[in-house]
Amino acid sequence: MSPSTSVTAFREALKQSKNIIAVAGAGLSAASGIPTFRGAGGYWKKYNAMSLATPEAFEENPSLVWQFYHYRRMKALSSRPNAAHVAISMISFPDFLREIAPEAKFTFITQNVDGLSARALKEVAAKAGKEPSQAVPFYEMHGRILDLICTSCGRRSTNQDEAPLCPALAATGALPTDPNTLSGVDTEEVADIPLEELPRCEDCGGLLRPGVVWFGETPLHMEQIDGVVAQADMCLVVGTSSTVYPAASYASEVAENGGKVAVFNLERTEGDSDADFLFLGPCEQTLPEALF
Length: 292
Ligand code: BV8
Ligand code: ZN
Known about the structure:
Layout: H1 7-16, E1 19-24, H2 27-30, H3 43-46, H4 49-52, H5 55-60, H6 62-77, H7 83-90, H8 94-100, E2 105-110, H9 116-128, E3 139-140, E4 143-150, E5 156-158, H10 167-170, E6 208-212, H11 222-231, E7 234-238, H12 250-256, E8 260-265, E9 277-280, H13 283-291
Parallel strand pairs: 1-2, 1-7, 2-3, 7-8, 8-9
Antiparallel strand pairs: 4-5, 4-6
Helix pairs in contact: 7-9, 7-13
The protein binds ligand BV8 and zinc ion.
Ligand BV8 is lined by residues 25-27, 30-31, 36-39, 49, 53, 111, 113, 142, 212-219, 222, 239-241, 243-247, 264-267, 269, 282-284.
């Protein structure tokens, strides 16, 4: 049976739901100007992030990997949450959620590392006269690009400064030339920053790495995430190509457990024919329209 596009039927299903999860990907932040990994952003096409988002790449060429993350840190810091981030933040507050799903608990799981969901939560809380802590916790399962981990002492910190992490990276601010994609960047054009001039740990002077989960590394909060996925009877899939595991497996797990799946994506993706609901279009429009 092909997925329903009826907002009325979706809202009815929400009313019956007990455990709702949302699993988001790069499409959630696309409207905020953060390039996605495929499609126009061209991360995968023009500049294979797979080849940079690995511990091996960092080991082999920390200067190149740091310039990739410097660019993305700058992008994240200069971007703002969009209406889809706000909608997800709204239903993270139980009393707002109750209006659309009176019997449900909600858990948000994001693959994104840009920190925009945390910013949206703060903004929604401030507008509603609430504390962010009144919202249910959400999981940034691939870490945060503004976090830093020391490869020597393991110290984890967060750096929200707009300023580049070190003078050597500041000099590469222009990387890459095209503001919307990573296209055109190749090893010749990239500066060769000596190890000692890359971001270093304040405590021990060790080399810092971005606080994200690379391919081949274990995602964060797996125990909590596996628990909520196993309980979920409604899974909202927002702006993800569902190509990276284990996040890509959550919707089918919920469906196998008899739950419902609602996909919010710009285009059709693998597996959305099994979805119960499919809302094609920009999630910054389709998600708020469907929820409220
Ligand atoms: C793990 C952080 C074991 C870094 C990311 C071989 C070797 C090693 C591993 C593997 C292997 N084969 C398979 C694996 C597993 C691997 C994997 O899945 N590989 C894939 C490529 C096959 N996974 C891992 O390694 C993971 N770890 O498996 O450990 C384990 C497992 C379970 C339990 C314990 C241990 C770790 C993966 C994490 C990698 N890190 N990010 C960084 O960001 O630099 S992944 C990164 O890419 C993102 O976080 C995201 O997850 C992924 C990109 O996917 P999307 O977010 O979906 O983005 P994409 O551009 O693809 O799609 C955007 C979608 O939005 C599109 O559909 C588009 O149409 C839509 N869209 C666009 N605009 C809008 C929109 N939709 C709505 N509105 C719009 N406006
Ligand atoms: Zn250290």
